[in-house]
Amino acid sequence: MPTQGERQNYLWRPNDNSVTTRMRYDLEAEHWTRAFKSSSNKGASNFGADLAVIGLVISLAINLCVMVVLLLTELVKFLYKIFNNEQQKYEANLITVNRRVSLTTTSIVDVKFTDDLFKKAAYMVVNQKVASISLLMFEFKIDFIRAFDIIEQLEKANIIKTYKKPVKRIVVQTIKSLDDYFNSKN
């Protein structure tokens, strides 16, 4: 620690009362006053700016939640569509397999015509001399599967011939032979 004599010999600031010394002190004091005021203002923030930042953060959080919900909804729709499509394919394959099994296990002699439209369809086909699935669907207002089954039954009963690509289905029976066919069945 410096002694008092060393401190007195050290001229840290001039302490004469001259005008230039006072002016220097005033300028330095003004500089430090401004520095303290500006540093105290930098730490304090505006209340409106704080509310704006809080609003932006809340808005961002809500938008993220909405996006997540929308993405999850689209994912569920996509998965439902895939599952539903796979289920329909499975059911279509099952129907095809059942049909194949029924075709291989039944013979022409013991075919049972369970469709109540079979007789009407047979008479219509013989009268019009045309047999097609779309015709049955249109005339009887039935779906494709039922019309297909009726056409198969007509083929098994030898009322129409089996379909071959370039040629239309050929109607084999006449009205008289058809009447005889149904009378023999009863």
If you had to describe this structure to a student in words, what would you say it looks like?
Helix 5 (133-140) packs across helix 6 (144-156). 72% of the residues lie in helices and 0% in strands. The protein has 186 residues and is mainly α. The relative contact order is 0.05. The protein folds into three domains: 4-43, no CATH class; 45-105; 118-185, Winged helix-like DNA-binding domain superfamily/Winged helix DNA-binding domain (Arc Repressor Mutant, subunit A, Orthogonal Bundle). The protein starts with a helix and ends with a helix. It is rod-shaped.
Query: How confident is the prediction overall: mean pLDDT?
Result: 78
At the fourth CATH level, what is the homologous superfamily of the largest domain? Answer: Winged helix-like DNA-binding domain superfamily/Winged helix DNA-binding domain
Radius of gyration: 50 Å
* CATH-defined fold name of the largest domain: Arc Repressor Mutant, subunit A
CATH architecture label of the largest domain: Orthogonal Bundle
The low-pLDDT segments are 100-111
How far apart, in Å, are the first and last alpha carbons? 136 Å
What is the CATH C-level name of the largest domain? Mainly Alpha
Query: Roughly what percent helix?
Result: over 70%
Number of domains: 3
Broad structural category: mainly alpha
Question: Helix and strand string, N-terminal first?
Answer: HHHHHHH
**How many extended strands?**
0
Q: How much of the residues is beta strand, in percent?
A: under 5%
What general outline do the C-alpha atoms trace?
Answer: rod-shaped
Contiguous helical run count: 7
Largest β sheet strand count, sense and barrel closure: none
